[in-house]
Specification:
two-stranded antiparallel sheet; about 20% strand
């Protein structure tokens, strides 16, 4: 299905940084005509929180651990008390 293809692409394009950071490349419009490649933010709409929500639900619906584990990794990075 399309959801599985999207989930696989998300899993394959993850960038893992130091200290458990998990993020993805993100395109952002700049100056009305140009696009910049940036790291994803933390937001629900355009960031890792929304990606984690999608992956968690995909993992629940399909029973596939790959999606669930990556969603948990994102949440662990977001909730790390050392970053607060």
């Amino acid at each position: 299905s399309a959801a599985l293809a999207i989930g696989d692409r998300i899993c394959d394009s993850v960038i893992r940084g130091d200290e458990g950071l998990v993020e993805w490349p993100s395109l952002c419009m700049a100056a009305d005509r140009y696009w910049l490649l940036e790291s994803s933010g933390m937001g629900l709409y355009r960031g890792v929180s929304g990606i984690a929500l999608f992956l968690a639900e995909l993992g629940r619906a399909t029973g596939t651990d790959r999606y669930r584990v990556l969603a948990q990794d994102v949440l662990a990075a977001l909730l790390d008390p050392d970053d607060m």
